[in-house]
Structure formats: C-alpha cells, structure tokens
Write a structure and sequence with these properties.
226 residues, globular, DNA-binding, alpha/beta, homodimer
Chain lengths: 226, 226
DNA sequence: CTTCTACAATCAGGACGTGCATAGAAATTC
DNA sequence: GAATTTCTATGCACGTCCTGATTGTAGAAG
C-alpha cells in the first residue's frame, strides 16, 4: 500500500510517517501544495492523507484536481484542524473518502484506512508480478519465483518493491533515496549504497531467473521493465 | 471471542461490558448508529449485542447492512425494550441469531451466547491447524500436537493465536502490541517483551515438533507460514 | 578504431542494529 | 504469601547496511 502524506507541520508529519512505516505502508511525503500536486500527478497512491491548511494553495483544490483526472484511484482522507463543518461537507462532496479532525489518534487513522481498504478491495491479497515468474507478496513480505522463495533483506525488499511498483518508469537515485530513507540530505550523496543494494538484489535473483528486467539507465537511475 | 456492544444507555452498557470482560470476552463498544456501523465494518466480531432504540438510525438497518455484506460472520443478539412482537419477527427474519427482551439477566445473556456458540460450532470445535500437526482449539483455549496437549499461558496463547489467524502475513511488533495489549505507541518502546514471548512459545512447542513455521522476519516482525 | 572519461559494478572490512538468551524484578493469580 | 505469569534489563552473536577503494564499461570525442 502506497501512501502520500500531505502535511506541512513537521512534527505531525513525522509522527504519522513513522507510524505508517512501521505498519508496513510505503510512504511518500509532500510539505507544500506544489510538491503534493506534482507527486499525485506523477505517482499512483492508494491513499492520500491531505492536510487542508497548506502553504501554496487550498488542499481542496488538490482533491478536486485529482478527481477530475480520473486515472487517480487514491482514497483521500482529509486531515484538518479546522473544525468547520463546511470543509467537511465540501471535502466529502468533492469525493474524499473520509475526514479526520485533528487531533486524532494514530489508531483511529489506521482503522479508518483499514475500513476503506475493505470497502475497496475486500480481503483479496495483494500480489505484484514482474520479470520472469517473480511474484511479490507484500503483506507477507515474500518474494517468490515459481514456488521457490527468494530471501531478501529488508532494504533489498523495500527497494525492489518500490521499483516494481513504478514499473516502466526510471527512478533516480535521489528519488529512491528519498523514498527509502525519507531524508534527502541534498545531492551530496557521493555514496553508492543504492548501487550496492541493486547489485545484491541482482545477485540473489539471478540464482533463480534472468534479471534483465532490472535495468540500469546510465546517468539517471534504475528501471524495472515489464 | 470478540463482542461488540451497541447500546446507548450508559448504565446498561457498563453493566454488560463489565460482565463480559470478566467472562474473558474481548469487548468493544458503540453508542450511536454511526459508531456501530463503522466498527462492524472495520472489525470482525463473534457477537454483536444490538440495541434497537439507537440515536442516529434504526438498529435493524445495521443488521440488514451487515448481512448483505457477507463477510460478516458475527452472531447478532437483539436487545430491546420494545416488547413489540413486530420487531422480534423482523429481526429474526433479517438474520438475527437471538432476541433478548429488556430487562434481562446477565446470566440469561450468557447462556444465550453459549447456546449460539454451540449451534454455530456444533461439536466440531473451531480449530485452526498449522505447523507440523498443531491444532488450536480457540474456544477451549487449548493447543494440541497430535493428541498431546501443549500448555501455554494466556499471553502466549493469544500471541500465537493472532499470528496463526494471520497466517502468511508478517506482523510487526507494533501491530502485535496494539492488538494484544491495546498499546498506544508514543514511546518507541525499546522493550522486547514480544521477543521474549516468542522465544518461550518456541521453546514450549519445540518439545513436540519443529517450530520453523514460526519465522522471524528480520527488521520487521514475525510470521507464521503454512 | 582508439582513447578518454564519467559512470556503474564489484569487493571486502567494519560499524551498527537487531534478535536471542538468560536472569531476575514486578505483577498477577490462587 | 507462594507460585505462576508477565515484563524489564543486559550481554552477546550475528546479519545487515554503509563506506571507500578498485575494477569494469558504455558512449562520446578525437
């Protein structure tokens, strides 16, 4: 499950992010209107947690825009301090899936998300397939090739998961770093830890099947192709 | 056993709740129609004790809605002051499992619940099997391997039960803590009590059969595999 | 075609994090 | 208050992740 947190207040953002990460969600963050708009447009999320009091624009416009672009399948949950019933009604009118007044407990957030998921998917398990016979069971955190299990470490699994989730799109090291570590730390990263992880993933997978679906795009980053 | 009490009158609610807690049920409460609807949707209960005179909507609608959504396996017991035969018939028509006119004694409630459980599970007790010949009798709170009984403490049993219920899914310590202790996070509890329980479970089970079905997923949590 | 250069792949060593074991303190039960 | 259960504290062992240096390679320029 892929979640975008749109929230400018750092402490709240961090708290929610941490919680969702530990609950095994894949988390993205945006702190301004522009950033949020861009990410929603580029990526596909399962959930968008949307704060209304944003710098740079009204969060409700984001929702409106996203709904107009009907490719967007994300469920929107509106978070706001404004107790105004107005906003709530407007939000739900515009197609928000739920509304959570601040302050809220993380447990409540989780149960709302689960409720929406049930409504949306029922109980069917989520599996992603790619490459030559690989299938990734996200909730079980298992990667299989045929019926053999491929052992990956946490970072390896997360990295591959993120790449597979964005099949056919090139992801830069910066993007991968940001999503897997949350902190950008600018582009001073003379480090090559992502390359190392990629190498290790390739090595492990190659024992089972060819790994040419995991491509290097020179000068940019990596891509998983169909 | 997980029970939801839907009842707006506080004193009656509290009395029933207290009683069920002491009878080792896991109890949830809802005081309005909306709250009840949400909880039924989100969680899965074994019993719903349903008051009909609810603020916010007719309790019978709840029942209807829940039955339509056929994932819901809860047994409904209708509690109402209205002596009207009408409601009784309507309720049972809609799939209620029993009907209890107020005022009722707690002992009567208990015996009705037990009757339903007997009807539901019959003589074939509800059993979950896993690992190499282990079977868990949930209602009797007994774990067996073959025909030998494995003695577990309450916490151990609950923990294993929860893991087994979610076979093939990785559960984080956070998730386990939440469901078994109602733990709120806040402090990134560096406690290792879950690890200790897992270790004790493994030790006890390993005297009977291999315990490799109970896996550690490094950096994430634990998983029981098929 | 050859050379050059920027980038990627590889490798090994070490710091760190995570889980396990043990023991004992605290809490609960009888 | 004794016994069992549950939680806390600590040291250790090992797997994971990152670093830094080195080797390999693709693509452009000569």
């Amino acid at each position: 499950m892929h979640v975008l947190i749109v929230e400018d207040e750092k402490s709240l953002h961090d708290e929610v992010r941490q919680f969702l990460l530990e609950s095994q969600y894949l988390v993205d963050s945006a702190h301004t209107y522009g950033e949020a708009s861009e990410k929603i447009f580029v990526n596909s999320y399962d959930f968008v947690l949307l704060d209304l009091g944003l710098p740079g624009g009204d969060g409700l416009d984001l929702l409106r825009e996203a709904r107009r672009n009907d490719q967007q399948e994300a469920s929107f949950i509106i978070l706001t301090a404004r107790g105004a019933l107005d906003d709530r009604i407007k939000g739900l009118d515009l197609g928000a899936d739920d509304y959570l007044p601040k302050p809220f407990s993380l447990l409540e957030l989780q149960s709302r998300m689960q409720a929406i998921m049930r409504r949306k998917f029922g109980l069917k398990r989520q599996e992603i397939t790619f490459g030559s016979g690989f299938s990734m069971d996200v909730s079980g955190r298992v990667l299989r090739q045929g019926d053999q299990e491929v052992a990956l470490t946490k970072k390896e699994f997360d990295l591959l998961h993120y790449l597979v989730l964005h099949k056919n799109r090139v992801l830069t090291r910066l993007q991968l770093g940001e999503h897997l570590w949350g902190n950008v730390l600018e582009d001073d990263s003379d480090s090559n830890y992502i390359d190392v992880h990629i190498k290790n993933i390739r090595k492990k997978l190659s024992a089972f099947a060819p790994t040419d679906f995991l491509e290097t795009v020179r000068g940019i980053g990596y891509r998983v192709t169909e």
